[in-house]
Design brief:
The protein has 418 residues and is α+β, with helices and mostly antiparallel strands. The chain contains 17 helices and ten strands. The protein has a four-stranded mixed sheet. A two-stranded antiparallel sheet has the order 1-8. Helix 1 crosses helix 11. Residues 1-13, 51-80 and 212-216 have low confidence and may be disordered.
Length: 418
């Protein structure tokens, strides 16, 4: 009896053990992840589904070599985006409010080496003041990928610290650790050491580490298409590897284990497709207006996890490094979600409240980041830090209080708006 009760649980855990790494992998790395599972199974093979032959040619090669307006690009949305394009798209107000600051920022981008670090070029920067260049370069700490524009790996880690919300004590300890990496062994007994190391290890440094030389290939997992007035969800089946078991008619008992492993892998791949398809359906349900041209609405991982009857960490794995293709372009799945600052508060809620505070502020005395921090803490009762307020302002294209006051004066708004 005991054996009968345990068997189903073992089967489920084996499938889930296979499923989670496959779910987490992005579609470009999916075949490589499947091959890791197939290494110990001599009868299992993983093949690219796109590598079927058509008219004596590799079908993938034939469709990939068409021009940019080919059916392949329209139907499969494989796009290449240069890292320099990614950076130039971020050179906008309020972080770079003037044409002068934008010109310097764009030249700084030209001075980045293949790791994403800044190397001063006398010729390119000859017409600009060195203090102005340094001021603009420091603003790169708010750009993606994190660490870009830093002079070396230490400064890149310091830039990266600005992208996360930490309490002041841990933040200061991380800074100290980074600045004294050569003597890191001297800090191992500190109670904050393990936490700090865990945080630092999360950063992808050098900044260009995850980019393929000068470009990044983006392949979507999900397609959202409009057909006859209906919005439909499709999975990118064309990019899914094929799993096959080749036993050549052999019927030995030892094959049972391999067949079972192969079935678990097939089930895991099916579970990945099913989960992403359900996520696509839920995104369409929650964000229907977005696919008709309107803005993205607040949506949390917790909401989606409850709808799909899975925990939030599983959904987080499912959407990591994955994209959706629709009429409005290629969009990271994470862009559809607001991530929680605590169990009940999302960053979208905080941003909306911050935006309303500034919209209704006294133009003669704009709210400082410290005052905004105080009001947000009182409203949401969360331990948010001042650096996070500054980061959210920048993401919302809202200038600092001093600059806002100047703008109000230029617009002739000397009193509180009615």
């Amino acid at each position: 009896m005991l054996k009968q009760k345990l068997a189903p649980k073992t089967k489920i855990s084996q499938t889930l053990r296979s499923w989670l790494p496959i779910l987490q992998a992005n579609i470009e790395d999916l075949k490589e992840n499947l091959e890791k599972f197939a290494e110990e199974n001599p009868f299992l093979s993983i093949q690219d589904s796109c590598q079927t032959h058509k008219n004596g040619k590799n079908y993938y090669d034939s469709i990939y070599t068409k021009n940019a307006v080919s059916d392949f690009v329209e139907n499969y949305s494989v796009a290449k985006k240069s890292i320099y394009e990614v950076l130039n798209e971020q050179i906008i107000p309020p972080l770079f409010p003037t044409q002068h600051s934008q010109n310097i920022a764009q030249i700084i981008i030209q001075c980045l080496n293949n790791e994403g670090y800044f190397e001063y070029d006398e010729e390119l920067l000859a017409n600009f003041d060195k203090d102005d260049i340094e001021t603009i370069r420091q603003r790169f700490k708010f750009l993606e990928p994190v660490g870009v524009g830093a002079k070396d790996y230490k400064e890149a880690f310091l830039f990266a610290l600005e992208s996360i919300d930490l309490d002041d004590e841990l933040y200061d300890f991380c800074k100290m650790l980074i600045r004294d990496f050569e003597n890191i062994q001297n800090y191992t007994k500190s109670p904050l050491y393990k936490k700090a190391i865990k945080i630092i290890k999360k950063f992808s440094i050098p900044p260009f580490l995850e980019y393929f030389e000068d470009s990044k290939t983006i392949i979507p997992d999900i397609f959202i298409e409009r057909e006859n007035g209906e919005i439909k969800v499709k999975i990118n089946d064309e990019y899914y590897p094929e799993i096959s078991l080749e036993i050549d008619g052999l019927e030995h008992e030892f094959l049972t284990k391999y067949i079972k492993e192969a079935k678990n892998l097939v089930d895991a791949l099916s579970m990945r497709k099913a989960t992403l398809y359900k996520i696509g359906l839920m995104i369409v349900e929650h964000q229907y207006d977005f696919f008709l041209g309107k803005d993205i609405k607040p949506m949390t991982l917790k909401d989606l996890a409850q709808d799909l009857e899975r925990n939030a960490s599983t959904i987080s794995r499912a959407i990591a490094n994955k994209y959706l293709s629709c009429e409005r372009g290629l969009i990271p799945l994470r862009d559809f979600f607001a991530f929680g600052l605590d169990e009940d508060t999302s960053n979208t809620s905080v941003k909306e409240f911050l935006s309303q505070l500034i919209k209704n502020e006294n133009h003669a005395k704009p709210l400082s980041d410290s005052k905004l921090l105080q009001l947000i803490r009182e409203k949401f009762d969360i331990g948010i830090q001042r650096r996070t307020i500054a980061k959210y302002r920048l993401q919302l294209n809202i200038a600092g209080s001093t600059d806002r006051k100047i703008l109000y004066e230029l617009e002739g708004k000397g009193e509180k708006k009615e």
